[in-house]
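I would love for you to help me understand the pair of lines that follows before we discuss the fold together.
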Amino acid sequence: MQTKSESDTNQNGIQAVVAALPKPIADFVEANARLDVDGMLKPFAADALIVDNGHRHAGHPEIRTLFEDEVVAVKAIFTPDSVRHENGKIVVEGPAHGDFKGSPIRFTYDFTLENDAIQTLEITL
C-alpha cells in the first residue's frame, strides 16, 4: 500500500510526463482521464488510424465506436509514466486501469503526429 507522499510523488511524476507530451497527445490523455469521448476524439485527424492490438479503426466514426465500447464502457484510463521519441513517433507507456479483467494492464501507445493532430496511434501490450 502506498503512503500519501508516495501517491503524491507518483501523481507529480505523471503530471510531469503529461506536461512533456505534445499538445494533441496531452489533450487525448487528459480527455481520457475524464472518460470524455468527444475530447478524446478531437485531437485526431479526420482520417486518423488506430491499430489496437492488431485491430484497425479508421476515421472518426470507427474511432468513436472504439472509445465508447472499449474505453468508456470499462472506464479504462491510461496513465502515462514515460515518453520517448523513436523513429519519428512519440512512444508513450504506462498502465491503464478500469473495470476490465487484469486491470491494471501496461500499454505502449505509439503516436504519429501530422499538422498538429494525431494521425496514427498503435496500441500494444
